[in-house]
Amino acid sequence: MRGLMLRSLLVVALALSLLISGGLSYNDIPDRDPRSLKASQLFDMIPAGKRGSCANRPVDNTLQDAAQIADKGLSVLEQLVHDAMTNNKNNQGVRWANMGYTMFGGKYKLENIPGDKKRRKKVRVTDGYSRVTKAMYNFQAVQFKLKNDRVQGKLMCGDEDLKLVHKLGDLGLEPKDKLISVAKKDPSNIKGYFLSRYWSPKDSKGAYILDKAFLVYIEDDQYEKWKYGYCHRGRAVMNRPSNLMVLCDRVWRSPTLRDTIRSQSSLIGKPIKDDDGKYLLDQQQTAGLDMLHETFHWISWDITDIKTSRGTAYGFSRCFQLAKEDLQQENPCDLDQSLRNADSHTLFGNGVTLNEVDWYPDGPKEQG
Ligand SMILES: [Zn+2]
User: Fold this and answer.
1) I need a labelling partner for 364 at 20 to 30 A (CA). Which of 24, 97, 141, 224 fits?
2) 167 - beta bridge partners?
3) Percent of the chain at pLDDT above 70?
4) How far is the CA of 169 from the centre of ligand 1 (A)?
């Protein structure tokens, strides 16, 4: 009786602790069809007609494309982690394995499965298993973000020049004190502007303002980099402290994933570079891919754009180089550069989503 009571107490305690520790975990990734996603469920956006508005941009489709690429990337990584058997008939599994281990610094061997009448082969991982597993967790975190139906960030579209302000006078506000000191005293003094909860104005050189929508804190060491505006340098950016994603005009000139897949000719057996020396895989750029790249930055401070001796690790060549270096590192502190690089994940997701991508040419595999 007592044992039973103890046991039932234990069950209750366990249930309670589950409830308390509960919250949301990545096991609770909303099982939503990517095509059902709406950008307004994830992002606050600037009203139509205002600068930086996304009103005339295909934001829903872009989010759906990003989620679709992430879905595919995650399912392939899950297959690799669970020792997926590859089907030699179409070699798709082998290509996936090669791509997964190529991008995240691992090696595998193909082995015959004894007695398998379909003559399938099994992928046996010889190195980098934990890195592929961690890549899978990163994809889960991205899924959790993209498929959530709670507004968690702000989205701004186009090359809007954000105005850098120093004084309240620059905003037409009285008194004309320095913005920083007023904001420090009482942020609510600046009515109508969004202030990030991470706002820490003591060292700030300035803040970007856009139609009273956002006030983005710029770190001292980031000031030079961003003083000409976010879109001066790149296609897109994630300002993580304020959860602001900016997708520049360059992004909106890219095709959709559907159009890319439709117009894509087979890349199998093609030289990995075109006549101009550009990597074919790097040219399959879509708006959804940009959103996915920025979402990898969004999920963790650790996921950045890694600097290498050859430049920032964007694109196939440098991501591949990072993965090769991961394989060669002996100092554990230097490991896992690929896992901290947004484009390594993004390229992998795109590669397994597009049709007929052949990742044999340079993969650091040990083919059996
Ligand atoms: Zn990046």
Assistant:
1) 141
2) 178
3) 71
4) 34
